[in-house]
Specification:
The protein is of the alpha/beta class and 286 residues long. Helices cover 43% and strands 17% of the residues.
Length: 286
Amino acid sequence: MNILVTGGYGQLGRELEKLAVCSHEHQWFFTDVDTLDITDPDAVERCFSEHRIGVCINCAAYTAVDKAEDEPEIAARVNTLAPQILAKTCLKHNALLIQISTDYVFDGNGTSPYQVDDPVNPQSVYGSTKAEGERLIRESDCKYMIVRTAWLYSTTGKNFVKTMLMLGDTKDEINVVNDQRGCPTWAHDLAAALVALLNRNGEEPVHETFHFTNEGNITWYDFACAIMELGGKTCKVNPITTDQYPTKAKRPAYSVLDLSKIKEYADMKIPFWRESLVKCILEINS
């Protein structure tokens, strides 16, 4: 199977590339904005035709949540238009589209884990553009798997874990919100889950939505404390409220995702968040 990965320089793309090196089942093609403009239908068509793409994993996204409030058109091009183009091209080539989406499609007012079929109600430009991208994929009639995730981190790129470790080296104390609850996700585990979905899928058409994070849920304050502890940092973490840390885009107060569907579908055991955090920090420090 020939697999195209867009957003190949990002956290998830890098982790998929590591798995691809060890895999001889498929042929992988990794692209990013400098090698494939996924907002250009002609460029996408040429790529699919040249490489006979059977699966496209779209890891590309505009993820600057606050900046998106000032740049809605740019966010929409990447998060809405590009998935629509990829979906239309996948339909033409009878290819499967795996779209990475986000907990931000929900309003964050829940009190129990969000199910895959719960109504979306995004509260930010970022969330709205990702939700619209989902809708257009579903309406395209292509084969698709939409995989929502949250709180992504890895050894590469900009993420909460690396930021906390840096602050732990440069600050005596920091303030972190303690009233936003969610699920951390190690990009390595998400990449492995996507490969498991591919292997489970076979050749049958699918039109499915899944949630994937690590097991367990915590607040950002809890997460920061664990990072400092496991990273051997002495920086003190103070809990604060969202009101004490205003941001341009509204953050979900509760964005815990229900994982039961992906566990059953792909027959996978998902690691607990702290277990994966330990492995990531060891890799960062190695």
